[in-house]
Amino acid sequence: MDKEDPIAESYIFEVSSAGAERELKRDSDFQRFLGHTVEVRLFKNLDGSKSHIGKLISHGDGKLVIEANGSEKSIDKKEISQVRLRISI
Questions:
Q1: What is the pLDDT of residues 38-85, one digit of tens each?
Q2: pTM for the full model?
Q3: In this structure, is the dihedral angle defined by the CA atoms of residues 89, 85, 81 and 64, taken in order, positive or negative?
Q4: Which of these, 3, 15, 78, 81, is most buried using a 10 Å CB contact count?
């Protein structure tokens, strides 16, 4: 873009990836991303934090299970405000 410079005015060139850190909502989303790293945000603190990052192990029966710091953490879905994919760098 800079070499050819087809736009005479000043502009901002933005690149994004649809779904890079997308929110998981449907059962099919959770099934598709089993084994991926997620960030689970809660309405109330659990173990001193409202945010937990770990590998998505399972979902169903009203629970979400992630593996964080070498142990599994089971979280009631009713306590979850949001679940997003997490990009690890």
A1: 999 999 999 899 999 999 999 999 999 999 989 999 999 999 999 999
A2: 0.75
A3: negative
A4: 81
In total, how many domains does the chain have? 1
Determine the structural domain holding residue 57 and report its residue range: 27-85
Query: 14-39 as b/e, with b when 16 or more CB fall inside 10 Å?
Result: eeeeeeeeeebeeeeebeebeeebbb
Is residue 8 assigned to a domain?
no
Does some domain include residue 18? no
> How distant, in Å, are the alpha carbons of 8, 40, 45, 66, 88 from that of 73?
54, 11, 14, 5, 19
CATH of the domain at 75: 2.30.30.180
Angle at the Cα of 53 (from 41 to 28), degrees rounded to 5? 70
Please check whether residue 12 lies inside any domain of the structure: no
| Residues 29 and 84 sit within 8 Å (Cβ to Cβ) | no
Determine contact, residues 42/80, Cβ cutoff 8 Å: yes
